[in-house]
From TrEMBL:
It is found in: Membrane. Residues 1-23 form the signal peptide. GO terms for biological process: homophilic cell adhesion via plasma membrane adhesion molecules; synapse organization. This is Neural cell adhesion molecule 3. It comes from Sparus aurata (Gilthead sea bream). Residues 23-108, 113-200, 207-291 form the Ig-like domain. GO terms for cellular component: axon; neuronal cell body; plasma membrane. Its main location: membrane.
Length: 301
């Protein structure tokens, strides 16, 4: 006996031990939902000696798929399931006592669900409409639901988010808070068989740059420092650059890590003029200007 046959016989023996009964006929299977290509194994336990036969949807099953396991049981095997193998399987027994009985078991065969070439990363521009596709295939039929934060997204006409007839998710007038991970769930209709696909949504926004003041006044002197703060927003995170008047000593200009804050130390009259903060990302750029007035005169001589 080869190894695969030994494994199969062991599985059948375990099924008999788990489900054996003298009271009634029973069909035992490892699972009720079978994927295309998987093996179907049904074990009929009659409970007493007799002649056992099999039918599917009322039609006799080929004898090549049926084997007698012992005097009270029979097994039916399909090595590679197809969609046509779904149906109601019946085990009939004509007992040696003359009594006739049968038992039935419904089997479901499915293919998929799968998501094919569905894109799992999307970028949308703020205040536009975003459509997130979910390309699903499967048999016999597949239902699609969308989730966010483990909650199903309700689909109502006119709502901010809703599922379209092609299973895509429509996000109307997208906002920054719509960014995140969405889950498309594809489920074989009426069966507990499903697959999830996580999709990342990024919301881009053009940069905005503004300064708290349009002008600032400061006295020149070795102890005089001034700080200019540029308030920037946007996604992706904008890069910040400053345009400044020519300075006799640019080493006195100090920036924080993202260059949103410019500090000028030991202010001199040469620092007088316009300062322009420009924020740039891949969407656009935005600028803000402040006029720095420096009064008095400081000389190191």
């Amino acid at each position: 006996m080869n190894q695969s046959a030994l494994v199969l016989r062991t599985a059948l023996l375990l099924l008999l031990l788990m489900y054996s009964t003298d009271a009634e006929m029973t069909i035992v299977t490892t699972k009720q939902d079978v994927q295309v290509g998987e093996q179907i194994l049904l074990l009929c336990k009659a409970g007493a000696e007799g002649e056992i036969t099999w039918t599917k949807d009322g039609v006799d099953i080929d004898e090549e798929n049926v084997k007698k396991f012992d005097e009270t049981s029979s097994k039916m095997i399909i090595n590679k399931a197809t969609m046509q193998d779904a149906g109601r399987y019946s085990c009939h027994c004509e007992f040696d006592s003359g009594h006739i009985d049968k038992t039935e078991r419904q089997l479901y065969v499915y293919e998929g669900p799968s998501f094919g070439q569905t894109t799992t990363y999307h970028e949308f521009l703020k205040d536009t409409d975003g459509v997130v596709p979910c390309l699903v295939t499967g048999q016999p039929a597949v239902d699609v639901q969308w989730f966010r934060d483990n909650k199903e997204i309700p689909s109502h006409e006119g709502s901010h988010m809703r599922q379209l007839s092609d299973n895509s998710l429509l996000i109307k007038n997208v906002k920054r808070e719509d960014a995140g991970t969405y889950v498309c769930r594809a489920q074989i209709r009426g069966r507990p068989v499903f697959q999830n696909l996580s999709v990342s949504v990024v919301i881009n926004a053009p940069p905005t740059a503004r300064l708290r003041e349009e002008q600032k006044k400061v006295l020149a002197g070795p102890e005089s420092n001034v700080t200019l703060l540029c308030l920037v927003d946007g996604h992706p995170q904008p890069n910040i650059n400053w345009t400044m008047p020519n300075s006799i000593d640019p080493s006195r200009h100090h920036f924080n890590s993202d260059r949103s804050q410019l500090t000028i130390r030991s202010v001199t009259r040469a620092d007088h003029g316009e300062y322009v903060c420009t924020a740039t990302n891949k969407i656009a750029e935005s600028s803000a200007t402040i006029m720095l007035y420096v009064f008095g005169w400081f000389s190191s001589l």
